[in-house]
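wait is this the right file?? whatever heres the structure
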């Protein structure tokens, strides 16, 4: 269900009211907002809409939290470490609030969607003004209005799934790469994962809305569009028009313009040959697939509720490599899932060696309250899990080096996105395969595609020189 017109016009009205109130409160110049989004790209994308609304309400932005008149932290709940860091950061805001009682502090995102967290914030961090969950971040204007009108604490946390929120103002973080959500939520309930609880059921945006946004990004000069969803392969479920993810990819690929397209995340259980064929035949889709396997042990995959086994996964990889010879691959791996033995872990290492991923995102299992895995026995000590992780990283570093060596001599199309880490005279970017590339070049190349001949391999990426 899409957000209703009335709902959006109510927020627009609130934005106008807040703007007026802020103009009166800050007659000498615009108030400053500081925002930070923790965690995944979906959260960062929500954060861009929060910034869009703040800008429309009359805020300018600062990267110095001490200077801010309004601080919004968009939180992440996927692992405990992220939560600890956020509690620490919120604790540090107390002194800022003391120094500036007009300061407005808001917390939103996945952590706030958990009742026990919202309660803890309410009780232990009473100087937090606004608390809002993932399904209602578009209500920020009415919440700010209530706060400015004198309500001390404003909370909006609905346990209901959000509808789809279209047409919110947006202030994108970059000018070269753009995030574009195609769906929200997740229905998979992997046993370790909090996401289905905090982001609700899967819902897909209408393809017209997605294509409209792709066209507008292309004409604004964006060079890379990242399609986002927790499980993009189940895109289209529940939409009136019958459409699946490969079909969406074909339509995006057909949009005119000089840009490339990535997407994440694919779930191996729903990733089809049609999707792989679509990438192979496309013009704009990058030859890179992020296909999180999580574990190389069939026993653990069952415990994780992943709905595939290693044989099916490896067959998919075999097919993908056959159809797309220059394919690069990446994965997420969880080390130390409850009940995982060293033998299970060794099967993960073996699978990594078999697939030869270009890069990995690795995580030590983190217990999340409310998930099924939180109820499972977890006898392996943390120090042991860290040792396993180090072992895995050493293997991956070897594989990455080897994969990068295989690129030496090749031509890569690189989207330049940063000054090079090697210092002045160097620039950096990513190849179509998402491999880091550094080469001597002028900073004016930033935002452009450049053909680079690879000359040297490292385990973090490659170095080269301009080929044209
Ligand atoms: N502990 C560790 N890693 C997790 N992930 C999700 N939940 C957990 C957890 N409880 C990882 C998975 C997922 C990635 C985004 O985060 O690997 O693919
Ligand atoms: Fe979490 Fe699994 Fe959904 Fe990914 S697919 S968000 S790991 S439940």
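ok assuming it is, sequence goes like this
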């Amino acid at each position: 269900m899409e957000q209703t017109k009335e709902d959006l016009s109510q927020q627009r009205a609130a934005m106008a009211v807040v703007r007026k109130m802020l103009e009166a409160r800050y007659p000498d110049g615009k108030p400053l907002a500081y925002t930070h989004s923790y965690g995944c790209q979906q959260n960062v994308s929500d954060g861009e809409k929060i910034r869009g609304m703040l800008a429309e309400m009359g805020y300018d932005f600062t990267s110095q939290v001490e200077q801010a008149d309004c601080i919004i932290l968009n939180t992440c709940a996927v692992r405990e470490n992220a939560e600890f860091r956020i509690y620490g950061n919120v604790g540090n805001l107390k002194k800022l609030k003391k120094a500036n009682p007009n300061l407005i502090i808001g917390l939103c995102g996945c952590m706030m969607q958990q009742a026990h967290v919202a309660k803890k914030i309410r009780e232990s961090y009473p100087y937090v003004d606004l608390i809002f969950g993932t399904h209602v971040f578009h209500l920020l204007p009415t919440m700010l209005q209530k706060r400015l009108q004198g309500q001390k604490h404003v909370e909006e946390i609905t346990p209901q799934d959000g509808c789809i929120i279209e047409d919110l103002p947006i202030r994108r973080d970059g000018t070269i790469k753009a995030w574009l959500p195609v769906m929200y939520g997740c229905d998979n309930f992997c046993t370790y994962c909090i996401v289905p609880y905090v982001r609700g059921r899967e819902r897909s945006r209408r393809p017209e809305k997605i294509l409209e946004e792709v066209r507008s990004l292309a004409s604004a000069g964006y060079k890379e569009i990242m399609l986002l969803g927790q499980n993009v392969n189940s895109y289209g479920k529940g939409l009136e028009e019958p459409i699946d993810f490969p079909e969406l990819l074909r339509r995006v690929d057909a949009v005119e313009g000089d840009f490339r397209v990535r997407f994440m995340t694919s779930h191996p259980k729903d990733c089809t040959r049609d999707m792989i064929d679509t990438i192979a035949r496309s013009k704009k889709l990058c030859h890179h697939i992020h296909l999180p396997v999580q574990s190389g042990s069939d026993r653990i995959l069952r415990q994780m509720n992943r709905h595939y086994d290693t044989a099916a996964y490896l067959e998919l990889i075999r097919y993908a490599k056959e159809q797309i010879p220059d394919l690069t691959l990446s994965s997420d791996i969880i080390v130390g899932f409850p009940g995982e033995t060293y033998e299970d872990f060794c099967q993960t290492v073996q699978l990594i060696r078999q697939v030869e991923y270009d890069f990995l995102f690795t995580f030590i299992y983190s217990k999340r309250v409310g998930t099924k895995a939180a109820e499972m026995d977890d006898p392996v000590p943390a120090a042991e899990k860290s040792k396993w992780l180090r072992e895995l990283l050493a293997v991956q570093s070897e594989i990455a080096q080897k994969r990068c060596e295989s690129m030496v001599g090749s031509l890569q199309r690189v989207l330049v996105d940063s000054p090079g880490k090697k210092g002045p005279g160097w620039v950096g970017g990513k190849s179509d395969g998402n491999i880091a590339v550094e080469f001597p070049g002028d900073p004016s190349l930033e935002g452009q595609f450049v053909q680079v001949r690879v000359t040297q391999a490292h385990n973090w990426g490659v170095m080269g020189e301009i080929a044209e």
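The two ends are 49 Å apart (CA to CA). so i think its the right one actually
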